[in-house]
Prior knowledge:
By secondary structure, the protein is of the alpha+beta class. The chain has a single domain, classed as 3-Layer(aba) Sandwich (Aminopeptidase), CATH 3.40.630. Helix content is 24%, strand content 32%. Strands 1, 2, 3, 4, 5, 6, 7, 8, 9, 10 and 11 form an eleven-stranded mixed β-sheet that branches. A hairpin with a 5-residue loop joins strand 3 (79-84) and strand 4 (90-103). The longest helix has 15 residues, at 129-143. It is globular. The protein binds coenzyme A. Residues 59-60, 118-120, 125-131, 153, 156-157, 160 line the site of coenzyme A.
Amino acid sequence: MIYATEKVDHPGIKGSECGQSNWRMKTRAKHHDIDFSVVPEQDIQPDLDKAIRDILVACFPADRQYYQRQSWWHCAAIYRVLGRDRRGSIIAHAAVVERTVNVGRELSKVRVAGVQSFCVSQDYRGAGLSERMMLRAMTEADERGFDAGLLFCVEALKTVYGRMGWQRIDSDVYMFDKREGKISIASKNITMFYPLGKSQFPPGDIDLAGTDW
Ligand SMILES: CC(C)(COP(=O)(O)OP(=O)(O)OC[C@H]1O[C@@H](n2cnc3c(N)ncnc32)[C@H](O)[C@@H]1OP(=O)(O)O)[C@@H](O)C(=O)NCCC(=O)NCCS
């Protein structure tokens, strides 16, 4: 199988402010030999799924038991971005889900690329790899015609994602829960969007039209 590998030059994502020169400086100095690839979900065979679960268990210890069984959270991905070292071991991971959310009183439809289980292995952190990962994930989303990226994270990560071009959205966000029906997303999380086909996220409440991810 041949997967798309990382583009060398800036992909020209509309509205992106990824701090290119910054991450290039960092990553050239360290971990320049990491290869990033996009893998469609249907190409993930059991051995690759196991390798993905291994990095998720290591990076999200609180969710260890969950990730030992399953490599995706609430909503299945349509593709993953995997970072591999020279030996081919997975050292970074992002899953992208597809969803059309309803926004505001007009229920405007926004097709979002939802980022899930974004992580870099401990030994490789602090070298800007996450920016390269995200750029690859959002370039793919742009090529697939998504309106925007959407993710949920703790407040502490706002600056980290902000450096990658993500912007905080202060709208209320609702999801569907099997037992409770329509509820707010977890209050510990903030919502951030990444401009793709739309340079601004429409104002108003966001209905995820399903679970969160
Ligand atoms: C968040 C994560 C992907 C960043 O990867 P990375 O390749 O180290 O990212 P970068 O090198 O681009 O940036 C590192 C910066 O993020 C900061 N950072 C990492 N985790 C953080 C956290 N939980 N809270 C606040 N800042 C954090 C670091 O302090 C560092 O800041 P600095 O550059 O000002 O020194 C990585 O730390 C990770 O996998 N964490 C565990 C899984 C996780 O929490 N994923 C996010 C899910 S929403």
